[in-house]
Specification:
Elements (H helix, E strand, L loop, with lengths): L2 E2 L17 H14 L2 E3 L3 E4 L2 H9 L3 E2 L2 H7 L6 H8 L6 H11 L5 H5 L2 H16 L4 E5 H6 L1 H11 L6 H12 L4 H6 L1 H24 L5 H7 L9 H15 L1 H15 L2 H9 L1 H15 L5 E6 L3 E3 L2 E3 L4 E5 H4 L35 H18 E6 L4 E2 L8 E3 L1 E6 L4
Parallel strand pairs: 1-8, 3-9
Antiparallel strand pairs: 2-3, 4-6, 5-13, 6-9, 7-8, 10-13, 11-12
Helix pairs in contact: 7-9, 7-19, 9-10, 9-14, 10-12, 10-14, 12-14, 13-14, 15-17, 15-19, 16-17, 17-19
The structure holds protoporphyrin IX containing FE (HEM).
């Protein structure tokens, strides 16, 4: 007889605790993993092991609880409800497969290669502003680098004017906050306004690209066709919105954590610096594995599930922990090591798994690789210049501030 979930004696994880981050977060997760593969959370349970994580991400008996959030927080009309209904992460089955079929070609490894020169140009312009002619320099890395870089990239991908990157960043930030319940309750009007403003903006951009197509995502989506099927304007604008809210905070946060990890470990920076082109890819993979900025992804069960002799009732909220899963089957997995044999480690679950696997994974990887190569070619020594300010691990796990000091290499 399977055991009902409620009969299990499980430890607890309050992942909503804003003080849970940095070393304390790592220690808490290590303790939980030592206890077993499952723990309680304020809303349901969390899965702490690779195979189980993969199961709950892939099963058709679970969905992303986006519409549950709408229901719980009485989002019953208006632009935000429209956005939630159309969000690709909230769609399932044939509807979801159709959209992915039309949008995937824009984000293949080959397709994202064409954005690398623009990424390098943005890095160079940000670098010039931050560093100037000083050989010894300091900056608050999040504000100076991590924040402007992904929004400039996404503006380019969208075909938006670069001057609009700060606006896009702000919209992305507000719309993304629908996944943060206290902010959703307190700031509903501001989030609604951001969605409405973005819809107007993207609608105008769509008209402009229809009249004058370019080499950008919107032009590509206008032309996208699969078996005679095309995207409607509403679908197209919502896909662009998903790319914007999926692609800004995430890359910003992963880049900031990666620089923090390297600044805390001078020997790893020296290794990267000795071979930037050769090691940047491995450093990105190790940072994605060791400090995923999506440490938890949520699912809600749409029917009862029996797994490992446990019965999970319908409507159970299951958090899937990529942080925990990424440590399974990795020798000395709690150590950050950019020189480890990446081929021996399983792929990280940082970008999810199954049909909702991150649409922008190739773009994010390219952005992170370009940034690390660029910085390692120019920075000789790198160190923290004060304590990083961590955000919470709920949602996108970012840094509010990362003070760094560094010396510029001769050839820089
Ligand atoms: C380091 C950077 C990033 C990380 C760690 C990340 C992580 C994730 C994860 C974990 C999911 C799956 C969520 C789930 O199944 O519940 C996801 C989905 C998604 N991501 Fe990313 N992401 C990143 C960057 C990007 C970028 C640059 C884009 C821009 C194209 C993007 C767009 C999306 C979209 C549209 C989805 C929904 C896919 C679907 O539902 O089919 N992400 N991402």
């Amino acid at each position: 007889m399977p055991t009902p979930l409620t009969a299990l004696d499980l430890p607890s994880l309050d992942y909503t605790d804003a003080a849970l981050h940095g070393p304390r977060f790592h220690a808490t997760m290590a303790e939980l993993r030592a206890h077993g593969w499952l723990a309680n959370t304020p809303l349901g349970v969390v899965v702490l092991e690779r195979e189980a994580a993969s199961f709950f991400l892939r099963t058709r008996s679970a969905e992303f609880p986006g519409m549950k959030i709408a229901e719980l927080f009485a989002v019953e009309e208006g632009p935000l409800l429209e956005e939630m209904r159309r969000n690709i992460l909230h769609l399932n089955g044939a509807q979801h497969a159709r959209l992915r079929g039309l949008v995937n070609p824009a984000f293949t490894p080959r397709a994202v290669e064409r954005w690398r020169p623009a990424m390098r140009a943005f890095l160079a312009s940000v670098w010039d502003e931050v560093v100037g002619s000083d050989r010894s320099s300091a900056c608050e890395f999040v504000g100076a680098f991590a924040k402007p870089y992904p929004s400039l990239t996404i503006a380019t991908v969208m075909g938006a004017p670069l001057d609009d990157a700060p606006r896009l960043h702000e919209w992305s930030n507000w719309i993304q906050r629908q996944f943060d319940p206290p902010v959703l309750m307190a700031e509903r009007a501001r989030i609604e306004r951001a969605v409405a403003e973005f819809y107007d903006y993207a609608g105008a951009l769509l008209e402009a690209r229809r009249a004058d197509p370019g080499d950008d995502l919107i032009s590509q989506l206008i032309a996208a066709e699969q078996d005679g099927d095309r995207l409607s304007d509403v679908e197209l604008v919502n896909l662009v919105l998903n790319v914007l809210i999926g692609g800004v905070d995430t890359t910003q946060s992963q880049l900031a954590h990666t620089l923090r990890l390297l600044a805390e470990r001078p020997s790893q920076w020296a290794a990267l610096r000795a071979d930037p082109a050769g090691l940047a890819g491995a450093a990105v993979e190790e940072a994605l594995r060791y400090e995923p900025i999506t440490p938890f992804t949520a699912r809600i069960l749409v029917e009862e599930v029996e797994y490992r002799d446990v019965t999970f009732p319908r409507d159970t909220v299951v958090l899937v922990s990529s942080f925990a899963a990424n440590r399974d089957d990795v020798p000395d997995g709690d150590r950050f090591d950019i020189t480890r044999d990446g081929d021996a480690a399983p792929r990280p679950l940082t970008f999810g798994a199954g049909v909702h696997y991150c649409l922008g994974a190739n773009l994010a990887r390219a952005e992170l690789q370009e940034a690390l190569t660029f910085l390692a070619e120019r920075i000789e020594t790198l160190a923290l210049d004060g304590e990083p300010r961590f955000e919470g691990v709920q949602g996108v796990y970012g840094l509010a501030a990362l003070p760094l000091r560094f010396t510029v290499a001769d050839a820089g």
